[in-house]
Amino acid sequence: MIRHCHHHRHDEPTSDLYLIVAPDEVISLADMKKHLRVDAEDDNELIEAYTTAITQHLDGRDGYLRRSIGEQTWELRLSWFPGGGSVPLPLPPLIEVVSVAYTDAAGSEQTFDGANYSVTGLGTNNGRVVLGYGKTWPAIGTGPEPVKIRFRAGYIDGGVSPSAPNVPGPILSAIKLMVGALYENRESVVVGVTAIELPWAVQALLGPYRVYD
To answer: pTM to 2 decimals?
Structure first.
């Protein structure tokens, strides 16, 4: 059975996100220790654990910001190509689309030639794959997730191009504030705890960067 992507189809395909390459760290141990005014080596592991826990709380598919902080690679898998010729990509900012792949009618995975589409919104909240003028999405087979769009997203340390800007200062400040709060109250903290409360000041810093569906 072949499913053609008809442009009059207005319902949305089901989708899921898979992490392919985990995010780069955005604050080094040395930078965090400088912020905390800690010179000794005794708490290095603890400080790294807090930094990772807070960053993960904000970052990626399940994070508070619903955006990519450190550079990372994701795969968006869809039940079909959506109508309208455009696929929005989540977890901004978008750095690049690595590939658009699909399962054909014979059950083989194929790569959709990059000449058939363009990528817009690099470095913004509006990254998307846009079908070229006069082009059509390929016919797909009947798997549960026959369409796979792999993309890189996030901020790059020392980023020099619009498609890969630096991590915004307010996000770094918020991470440092929260790690500082955990470190000062470390006797009462369990690392990896999911119920991390965001203080008002941190919410104010992060507000402009939060992505709403």
So the answer is: 0.86
